[in-house]
Amino acid sequence: MLNVEILGGVGEYGRNCFFIENNGHAILLDCGVMNNRHNTPPNLTRAHVAKVDAVFISHSHTDHVGALPLLETLGYTGPIIMSEMTAQQLKQPCKHTRTFKPESIGKWLVVNNCLAFQWGYSGHLIGSVWYKIRFFEEVIFYSGDYVVDSFLLKAELPIEDGTVYDVAIIDSGHVEKRINNLEVLQQMTEYIHANPSCPIIFPSSFSGKTADIATYLFQHTTRAVRVDHDLLSLFDNYDKAPENLLATKTLLQQFKLECLAKKTESENAIYFMPERDEAKLMELLNNKSTAIVIFTGYRNKGDYKMRFSKNQYKDFFYKTHPDYHDIIALSQKIHAHKTIYFHSSLTNSETTFLQLLKEEII
């Protein structure tokens, strides 16, 4: 019988880490830290690590991989399983990485005599995946971070074969939202068209969202698109993983030729700048006094020391996790005896599908 211990990520946004034990053996699903000043780690101990046969990593964001050095410090020497693309994105390479190739999608991959898995694309980031894991006689589904309607990235689910999962761990990151990403992209485009003389600045991160927005606006506006040097590697990854993409290869080639090359200055360009580099944002705003900053996610008042006037910014929320309707649909497609909803302060270990259906937590 499976014993699931939540080491982080449930009832909070960050440090995703799930310890699942069965017959004296264990696996770990992700191993992240909180995106806060202290990089708070999961509640991982040597006792946990001593039982772990394998670690499954869904993608390269810090809240899913930031505690991998801690894992090694605690003595772990087993396989750390992830996609080839995720391994390339890690800022700190792992000693015991075991990657799988794109052509293995949908196949059962054996870890040891009690553990095997399948994987598929989750649409959150280039290289991000979900896992279907067979652990002795029990079967587990882990969504990782999941985006149903990325503009560029595929999002799949396991083939429906009658499996009833013993445990499903499902992303509920935007449970309080009801959003259609394509509609948001269209609204952004309309807003940009309505402000023709104003440069547009998107504070951005290494994410599927950044690539989605940049390529969509390249396709649907006539403005120059400029991507900061620190974000260029994201677009290089898209070139390396065409199997992870929807039918947009030609668009991406055009985007790279026209937007990532150094070009002459444009008065009303669309800029994608690292969201955590306030100095770069300040410099660009000082040089572009009529610029409008567009925020596309959760934003706290204390995120930036600078203050924006009402005419200086606009909010458009673009999903990087499932919203309420997506979560309901995922829960209905993934038949499980027990479902754990993670990645939100609005859900906890006691949250049930019935509560979600009745909208009791929102």
UniProtKB/TrEMBL annotation:
Annotated ranges, domain Metallo-beta-lactamase: 14-188
Protein name in UniProt: MBL fold metallo-hydrolase
